[in-house]
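User: My collaborator sent over this chain with a note saying "see what the structure looks like." That's all I know about it. Can you take a look?
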Amino acid sequence: MWLRINILILINLLFYWRTLKYGYVSDDMLVKAASKPTGKFWPDLWSEFRGVCYFNSKREHAISLIIHTINSILVYLAFGADKVSFWAAMLWAINPVNNQCAIWLSGKAYSMSVMLILLGIWFKPFIPLYFYVYHWGINGIVYPLVYVNMHPHWLVLLFPLYFIVRRKILKDIKTVKGDVSTKRMKSISPEKFSLAIKTFSYYFITALFPIRLGMYHEFGYPYGLTKKDSDDVSKLDAHFWLGLILCILFAYLMFSNWNNGIGLGLWWWCVFISMWSNVIVIQQFIAERYVYCANIGLMYALSCIIWRLL
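Assistant: Without extra context I'll predict from the sequence alone. Here is the result:
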């Protein structure tokens, strides 16, 4: 076990070491401009850790690297600490789609919430950390639903807590001004079925073939800006029908393997990608940091498939 953990540490260091030379981008620069050091090491370090202040880019990127490395190890431990989970952890650790949490400083909140989730999966006494997940990022609040396919199943009863924070989530949604945009982005309507299918398939393909990445994606970007833009994004075009076929195949693969690792991994993906499927548009329409947690399940399912074929 310790050999595999050391290998994971080495892989993360080799893959991400150069990020220690990176600076600030996008929201990082806004935080940096507003940061005022207290002059005390530990309070300033805690502010950097939380991502509310930035003082030293090398130290802050080191923190992100450490968190991502720990998460990689926790993927290995939480999914059984065997050869399958080891390869899943390696695939996940180096998957470029994770870049916004492994590298981008402002994505740290998402990686921290994933750490709390994985700690609960690995060691059951850590499950109460779930109540602290929302303090870091909202991407983990659907976490109890994974217990539909994991033991103990009764922990799925924690899920109703999601509705307690749902109102705050809706308040946090950043939309442009205008009644049409706001209503379409926040409301649940028949057109959202098309958006969900398209978003699910887009994320799935992006995670498996992470070759076109960036802070912003053209897909769905204008949704909510005008009525015409929203209609164009949500129409039943070729992307929708291809996405629907992919979703049907995905569902078949998941349910036909429900009692093994493939089913577990695919269910994990479904749970954590569901809140970003744009049934309710939260923050950006598409963002790679939203895949960070869901991608754990997809890489685990892929690892199971690889080992079944070998």
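A starting point for your reply to your collaborator: Residues 2-23+33-156+166-309 form one domain.
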